[in-house]
């Protein structure tokens, strides 16, 4: 009844089903790992944003690498902005995906160390890629700033190529080691995304808080792949039973061979 399973067509179909089952199970586990990773990142971001602000020099120092646990921590710093050495970071987008610049301004602390402060986003209004854009000035004199701690940007981590030969006062990456070499001053590791004080003119646009990654979607995909893997053998058996029934019905409906007439005497 099931000899048809040895046919070329059914052998291929069965092999495909046997390959699909472990593949779908592995895809489900991969999605579950993604769910766990995203959930862990969301928890880290929530914990960092919810922590009490601390002085910036409690988390960083010249040459220090910002750790995962320190990322997004709220820090404060007292000093003054140095707009003479201000630079812009090219090819950055805002919440509406408009392309412009991030404004990176050195913030000189009372002890002479420099903190890099990303003051926010400005549009690339000029058609020229070489002109330095007009940037509203920050508050003058000694002030206290608040922001989110961020690690140095690298090509490996961000995927942004660090181009050479850029126009004066334009950079591709926010990197404290590069800026320390340019400024000839001790620059604290990492940088700060400004949250306060807000610009009086609304420009530069402050960079919004990091949002939660949609971990639930990965969980749903994992369940979906595992359901698919369970459906493969069920579907295969359904096809086998249907083929067997059709072959049986075809056999039952075949005309019986005619009886031989008796030979004439």
Automatic annotation (TrEMBL):
<feature type="transmembrane region" description="Helical">
    <location>
        <begin position="219"/>
        <end position="239"/>
    </location>
</feature>
<protein>
    <recommendedName>
        <fullName>SURF1-like protein</fullName>
    </recommendedName>
</protein>
<keyword id="KW-0472">Membrane</keyword>
<dbReference type="GO" id="GO:0005886">
    <property type="term" value="C:plasma membrane"/>
</dbReference>
<dbReference type="InterPro" id="IPR002994">
    <property type="entry name" value="Surf1/Shy1"/>
</dbReference>
<keyword id="KW-0812">Transmembrane</keyword>
<keyword id="KW-1003">Cell membrane</keyword>
<dbReference type="Pfam" id="PF02104">
    <property type="entry name" value="SURF1"/>
</dbReference>
<dbReference type="InterPro" id="IPR045214">
    <property type="entry name" value="Surf1/Surf4"/>
</dbReference>
<comment type="similarity">
    <text>Belongs to the SURF1 family.</text>
</comment>
<keyword id="KW-1133">Transmembrane helix</keyword>
